[in-house]
């Protein structure tokens, strides 16, 4: 009896869990999401919420905070870096107009870390001003990042007491040189703190090798110190190698896997590869869950695969498919529990949703039955109109023949085709 109640309770809990849209994780694969740029905000969707909101309500494992986008900002005292967090923090330190003072976010980072999330600082981004002009400058920058964001000490700490779990290099512009010096220096500092495991990650583009990070050129960071990277969040979007282009995707992912594997063989350690996807239909390279599942099936057994990365939290929040956030569906795919969620009639609406704003059908919770009803009514109406038209057309064609006889050629047939 007790056993049965327990079984029932467990069954109930797992059902409730499914209804919540957060199935238990049963693989060691991880889900990464960028937070801080509020990409949805610029498209007038719902604004990105605070970091702690996502740690509490979403099933992410690693969250890079984006971005530290200026390495040496002459507007700041001591040429301290500039950070940009879109709508999230609007107070700065006196004398450092682009260095944000975000006590609240600092507390949220600590809350997130207590629940097991890894919070990284992402350096670079698509817009910013960053490069190193010498090896010593790169080493000095590592020391600044250590003091401002990691376990070092400084009066100026944008996230106060919070010690971030590492740094992410999202280098999409500038020069290729001296990043290896930065990585070596920051890894050395990380090794001085025995209480914590720190992460160094990168976000190259899917074409292999990456134009800036490599591997390839003699001074590129992935050529020189590939073994110092824990994870690579490869961006499979805005490029020809998105995961639906299977030929190019196959080539790209095989190259990245091979890079990870050979690094591990050579150094005894190396990066895991993550498949980076946009979380919004508005971004070039977005993939429906069915396409993601197909790609997953072809790569999931590779020991170099780390999981998925999503750009970004705000897009994920705005992308609800059949009541589930995109990231929740990605998690079910990684757990091999995904069942295709779009059926015949709703497929039609799904296409509209994917092509358009992505909001109407997700905000208005129209039940599938209602959609089907609507569809049938429209169909019957259309049929009725067409039947009337064809009768009308017959009449017209009789008339036009009459006109032809009189030599007047003004008749223009109706344009149904
Ligand atoms: C700064 O952020 C706070 C908290 O989010 C907000 O209440 C305030 O209106 C913002 N101030 C400005 C000038 O944007
Ligand atoms: C940073 O902001 C907090 C309030 O959020 C304030 O108490 C503190 O004095 C500020 N720090 C500096 C150095 O300006
Ligand atoms: C890509 O790889 C998968 C699995 O290895 C394979 O089934 C598929 O045919 C490949 N596609 C192309 C276009 O090469
Ligand atoms: C992982 O990918 C690499 C590179 O394509 C390949 O050599 C290796 O066999 C793959 N491993 C598995 C288990 O599929």
Automatic annotation (TrEMBL):
- Residues annotated as coiled-coil are none
**Domain GH18 spans what residues?**
29-328
Supply the InterPro entries for this chain.
Cts1-like (IPR045321), GH (IPR017853), Glyco_hydro18_cat (IPR001223), Glyco_hydro_18_chit_AS (IPR001579), Glycosyl_Hydrlase18_Chitinase (IPR050542)
Q: Which stretch is the leader sequence?
A: 1-21
What keywords would UniProt list here? Glycosidase, Hydrolase, Membrane, Signal, Transmembrane, Transmembrane helix
Parts of the chain that traverse the membrane: 369-387
Alphabetically, the GO molecular function entries are:
endochitinase activity
Per its UniProt record, what SUPFAM superfamilies does this chain match? (Trans)glycosidases
Q: What is its EC number?
A: 3.2.1.14
Q: Which PANTHER family does this UniProt record tie to the protein?
A: ENDOCHITINASE (PTHR45708:SF49)
**Similarity comment text for this entry:** Belongs to the glycosyl hydrolase 18 family.
This chain belongs to the protein called chitinase
Q: Which organism is it from?
A: Clytia hemisphaerica
